[in-house]
Amino acid sequence: MHDIAWIRENPDAFDTACASRALSTSSAPILELDQRVRQAKTVLQELQQRRNELSKQIGQAKSKGEDAEAAIAEVGRIKDAMKAAEDEERETSVELDTLLAGIPNLPAQSVPVGPDESANVELRRWGTPRSFTFTPREHDALGTDLGLMDFDLAADISGSRFVILTGALARLEKALAMFMLDIHTREFGYTEVSPPLLVRPEAAFGTGNLPKFEEDLFKTTSGHYLIPTAEMPLTNMVRDRIVEEEALPKRLTAFTPCFRSEAGAAGKDTRGMIRQHQFCKVELVSITTPETSWEEHERMTACAEAVLQRLDLPYRLLVLSTGDMGFAAARTHDLEVWLPGQNTYREISSCSNCTDFQARRMKARCRPRGEKKTRFVHTLNGSGIAVGRAMVAVLENYQQEDGSIAIPEALVPYMGGLNRIGAPA
Description:
- The protein is 40% helix and 19% strand.
- The strands form five sheets. The protein has an eight-stranded mixed sheet with strand order 1-10-11-12-15-9-8-4. Strands 7-13-14 form a three-stranded mixed sheet, with no helix packed on it.
- The chain has twelve helices and 17 strands.
- The longest helix has 37 residues, at 27-63.
- The radius of gyration is 27 Å and the shape is elongated.
- Helix 3 (27-63) packs antiparallel against helix 4 (69-101), helix 5 (139-145) crosses helix 12 (387-397) and helix 7 (167-187) crosses helix 12 (387-397).
- It is of the alpha+beta class.
């Protein structure tokens, strides 16, 4: 949600920021509605003041035995006028809030301006892609030939964009998750959380998923939504709350299934595990003060990078352009891992600073020590990392010519000492 007072004071800056995200929205209709709301409030205050004056006059007249019918009649007319002003304020406020709720966060000044992913800027690369003496294969072919990854059986049970993992690959999925959680909790100070997988609409609104992106969510008959990422419940842990600033930053992590309808991804990545309706992810969320959120953004990105570095998976770091950022983000870093089977880099983590955008929607505040006045927190979220895509990267980068998969050294303890997933006899 946006600060209407800031828009009122900085209409040109707001318009420029909206234009950088290729939005047709401008400050003009927002300020027109804002003026109507404020005018209705002014009228209501004036009417209330006049009613109070008349009530006093009526009381005085009655105490003296004087005629008060004219004043009583005017109070009746004021009552009707107040009802009209209250209706105008309420209806216009709803219209204004609805308009503001559909506008994405404004990009930070450091974000490259561009229409789409073509304007993303690469900041750096880590690691060198492996050289193979054979033509590397894609993960779905590798997993299927191992007899441990079955898309057809999953489709019979659930439809497209699902997979069944068995044996060592099912174990590898959990090993990756536990490896990530251990790094984030033991080394980087995140607190592990086991959150609900179903949330109310208010929680989805708070993170910016509603109302604009409802088609991307799975909704239950009870009105709950399945989480598309643990960002949703973790961030909402501070909704409608005041956090003491000395308790910040709060750093939270969770390993959960995630559910996405992929409504806008028709025809994209229909094969394999890259884009599915159900997948697992280790999520990172930080709640910070405004002064520390940009430093926290760099720190969170580094935490996600550490996972890839310890798995020895080559990757590159991008800053997304204004046209490629998510709805709630002010700046986003994408980590793209090298996939030799596809001969390209693919996204495996996004780390975003949402500044106070989500906090305003959630009414999440912090309070400096010893002060009564509060202010909105800043929220950040990132993949730490996507477990399914990490498995894809391990399969493709550690594949052997005979179809077996070497286990990264860092994962061997989590695999019960197994250092290779053998090829079928």
